[in-house]
């Protein structure tokens, strides 16, 4: 019934603040904009991250999150910290990966993630 | 920072579930997903979806479900069949099926209230202007 993840939608309250964060702090490149700029899509490999602003859809500090796979997790964390991003879970090792959790300006949880080689 | 090329490794979407047993029933029995990986004594379950991974987890009070915020849109093979199957299993719809110029969508909730979007992209020859 389900083939794949079509996209992941992240709710934000301020389009311009979100644009700066996702495009400048995280260095994502927009691939599509719709709804007069209130919906911006970023393609990441086979997946699309959609960042949207709508009064009926609020950001949340809880619930679903996205883990971004990076090449070098230490370098990614250092760069984000240098840009003022605060981490609420510092780099953590599990049997299969390393990860650290931070927030976007609306408090939505995001994770930087690096899989261990299998 | 994040490579946006096609060879980038999979990203993971993670859903927290307090009602973990009923949540996994919904993720496995209704859409027929098969657990690809179970960790933390079954509290963290991963489902492979195309090149992505969807994780459903119950890992304590530091990460709780929400009916707001981030949500995943799941691409289905047949939109009408998927909606029927979900309704037959009494899954809660917070947005009934609707059509945009480029896709069909509906919004459901898992037993913890986490929102999921059921999505079907239209073929190129049926798409309107997606703005």
CATH superfamily of chain A: 2,3-Dihydroxybiphenyl 1,2-Dioxygenase, domain 1
Biggest sheet descriptor of chain B: 4 strands, mixed
E-strand count of chain B: 8
Largest interface: A-B, 50 and 51 residues
Looking at the structure, what is the overall shape of chain B?
elongated
Oligomer: heterodimer
Number of domains of chain A: 1
Mean pLDDT of chain A: 95
The helix content of chain A, as a percent range, equals: 10-25%
Please identify, by name, the CATH architecture of chain B: Roll
The separation of the N and C termini of chain A measures: 29 Å
Apparent shape of chain A: globular
* CATH H-level superfamily of chain B: 2,3-Dihydroxybiphenyl 1,2-Dioxygenase, domain 1
Report the structural category of chain B. alpha/beta
Gist of the model:
Chain A is 18% helix and 45% strand.
Keywords:
heterodimer; A: 118 residues; alpha/beta; four-stranded mixed beta sheet; 2 helices; 45% strand; B: 131 residues
Topology overview:
The complex is a heterodimer of chains A (118) and B (131).
Chain A: E1 2-11, H1 15-25, E2 30-34, E3 39-44, E4 47-52, E5 65-69, H2 73-82, E6 87-93, E7 97-103, E8 109-115
Parallel strand pairs in A: 1-4, 5-8
Antiparallel strand pairs in A: 2-3, 3-4, 6-7, 7-8
Chain B: E1 12-16, H1 20-29, E2 35-39, E3 44-49, E4 52-57, E5 71-76, H2 79-88, E6 92-99, E7 103-109, E8 115-121
Parallel strand pairs in B: 1-4, 5-8
Antiparallel strand pairs in B: 2-3, 3-4, 6-7, 7-8
């Amino acid at each position: 019934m389900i083939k794949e993840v079509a996209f992941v939608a992240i709710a934000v309250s301020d389009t311009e603040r979100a644009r700066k964060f996702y495009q400048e702090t995280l260095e994502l490149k927009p691939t599509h904009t719709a709804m007069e700029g209130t919906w911006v899509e970023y393609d990441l490999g086979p997946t699309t991250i959609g960042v949207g602003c709508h009064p009926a859809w609020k950001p949340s500090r809880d619930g679903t999150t996205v883990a971004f796979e990076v090449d070098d997790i230490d370098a990614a964390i250092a760069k984000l910290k240098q840009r003022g991003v605060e981490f609420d879970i510092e780099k953590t090792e599990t049997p299969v990966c390393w990860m650290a959790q931070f927030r976007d300006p609306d408090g939505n949880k995001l994770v930087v993630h690096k899989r261990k080689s299998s | 920072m994040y490579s946006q090329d096609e060879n980038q490794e999979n990203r993971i979407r993670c859903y927290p579930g307090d009602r973990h047993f009923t949540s996994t029933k919904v993720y496995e029995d209704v859409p027929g997903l098969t657990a690809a990986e179970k960790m933390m004594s079954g509290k963290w379950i991963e489902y492979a979806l195309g090149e992505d991974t969807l994780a459903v987890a119950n890992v304590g009070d530091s990460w709780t479900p929400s009916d707001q915020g981030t949500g995943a849109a799941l691409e289905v093979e047949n939109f009408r069949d998927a909606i029927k199957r979900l309704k037959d299993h009494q899954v809660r719809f917070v947005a009934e099926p609707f059509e945009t110029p480029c896709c069909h969508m509906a919004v459901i909730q898992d037993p913890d209230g986490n929102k999921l979007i059921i999505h079907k992209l239209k073929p190129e020859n049926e798409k309107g202007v997606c703005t």
